[in-house]
Design goal:
Low-confidence stretches: 6-21
Distance between the termini: 79 Å
Helix content: 25-40%
GO biological process, one term: lipid catabolic process
Pfam families: PAF-AH_p_II (PF03403)
CATH topology of the largest domain: Rossmann fold
Largest sheet: 11 strands, mixed
Radius of gyration: 22 Å
Strand content: 15-25%
Shape: globular
Number of helices: 10
GO molecular function: 1-alkyl-2-acetylglycerophosphocholine esterase activity
InterPro entries: AB_hydrolase_fold (IPR029058), Serpin_CS (IPR023795)
Strand order of the largest sheet: 3-4-1-2-6-5-7-8-9-10-11
Number of domains: 2
CATH architecture of the largest domain: 3-Layer(aba) Sandwich
Mean pLDDT: 94
Keywords: Hydrolase, Lipid degradation, Lipid metabolism, Signal
Length: 420
């Protein structure tokens, strides 16, 4: 009888378990036959690169005086030439369990030689990371957009211990979210590269989720109204809060005026207005076309006194609100990886009780593309509904009312679309 080598078996088992944990998961099924029309991939191959950049003049949130060097990691998607290496994306759950997911993009593929594609910045929530909306970034790039998603330093899931120190990066987040968004536009606009050469930076969009939405509203011309009580709620002492509140109450990503390159904004479940942190006067003066997307039961950003109020206060002539009935806050992330199902803390970052995350993602792809194409490319505006209710009604003759343009018959319920 051959004796088992115990140390060898332990090593082998650890390798096997590690591979099971880190094996790239496919989070999406092929639903091309029943997806909304504009949720289908576009005609371009999509390349993706990871890039580190540094803002050498970032506002110093540690002493609120002067600047410091702020490092950011960017995931960059773009129309690309053929390549063989399919991208995977590695991230961590809120309890810092590592997972890897499969993408459709081509890792480090060369960009195509010609084009003039609008620029999109994607900004995650608190906490999150640059891959949280990878499905949307890949989708937009396949339809002719350059997309840069940010890892917001001090605010990523990897950096924050949500159990023992959940607010550690919150002050930095309040200061830097919009400033990071603006810096990414500035950086790539000034940088000469094959990707920048095919980018139209005069047609820029910011897409923000939760805290990313908090920043996006400010970036396109909004102003914060942070009060001492808001800072005291995150642990700042009263005397210091009185001094610092004006520093948190910036406009237009810390600029004197809004950058005119911003031509559209998409805000998924934007945070802040339940606490009246966005100036109502500045919202009324917003000119940039805006698409708000919210769950009707959002218990983080709020709906009636949160996202819906933002929509109603926004003055843009092209202003829309997409509402998921019975959805809470997690309307934007990709589906939960397998490992997230091990505990509520991790699953709660992705899971929606009444909705399939995959279906939410497909609807997001459809409407964000329709909105951006309409406002940046002056095409497909007909895909933005003119009827509030997405649910088709059965008529007396046994037939159904018309589906929203681009949606399969009887496919959609529980979605509303408002235009102010």
């Amino acid at each position: 009888m051959i004796k088992a080598n115990k140390p060898f078996l332990i090593l082998l088992l650890s390798v096997v378990l590690s591979n099971v944990t880190l094996a790239a998961e496919q989070l999406y099924r092929d639903l091309s036959g029943v997806m909304p029309e504009l949720a289908k991939a576009g005609s371009y191959n999509v390349g993706v690169k990871t890039q580190s950049i540094v803002n050498s003049k970032a506002f110093d949130h540690n002493n609120f005086n002067g600047t410091y060097q702020r490092k950011l990691t960017i995931e960059l998607w773009y129309p690309a030439k053929e390549s063989k290496t399919i991208a995977t994306y590695q991230a961590v759950t809120r309890s810092h369990k590592t997972f890897t997911i499969k993408g459709n993009a081509l890792r480090n593929a060369n960009p195509i030689d010609e084009g003039s594609f609008p620029f999109v910045v994607i900004s995650h929530g608190y906490t999150g990371d640059r891959t949280l909306l990878f499905y949307l970034a890949e989708h937009l790039a396949s339809h002719g957009y350059i997309v840069a998603a940010i890892d917001h330093t001090d605010s990523t899931t990897k950096e924050i211990d949500v159990t023992n120190a959940p607010m550690k990066g919150f002050a930095s987040t309040l200061i830097h979210r919009s400033r990071d968004q603006q810096f990414v536009l500035d950086y790539f606009r000034k940088t000469k590269s094959p990707i920048s050469a095919i980018t139209n930076f005069n047609k820029a969009t910011v897409i923000g989720y939760s805290m990313g939405g908090y920043g996006a509203i400010n970036t396109v011309g909004g102003c914060y109204e942070v009060k001492p009580a808001n800072l005291m709620a995150i642990g700042v002492k009263q005397e210091l809060a009185n001094t610092l509140a004006p520093l948190f109450s910036s406009c237009s990503a810390g600029r004197e005026t809004v950058d005119p390159s911003w031509k559209a904004m998409v805000a998924f479940a934007p945070w802040g207005q339940e606490h009246n942190l966005h100036s109502a006067d500045s919202l009324a003066n917003l000119k940039v076309p805006s698409l708000y997307i919210s769950g009707e039961q959002d218990d983080i950003s709020g709906f009636e006194h949160g996202v819906k109020k933002l929509f109603e206060q926004t003055g843009s002539d092209s202003n829309f609100l997409l509402v998921y009935e019975n959805a809470r806050h997690n309307i934007a992330p990709h589906p939960a990886p397998r490992i997230a199902y091990q505990n509520d803390t991790d699953l709660g970052h992705y899971y929606e009780p009444s909705w399939s995350t995959e279906k939410l993602n497909r609807i997001n792809q459809h409407f964000v593309l329709a909105f951006l194409n309409c406002n940046l490319k002056q095409q497909q505006c007909e895909y933005l509904p003119t009827r509030i209710e997405g649910t088709q009604q059965k008529l007396a003759n046994g037939k159904y009312s018309k589906a929203w343009i681009g949606f399969p018959e009887r496919w959609l319920t529980g979605v509303k679309f408002y235009k102010k």
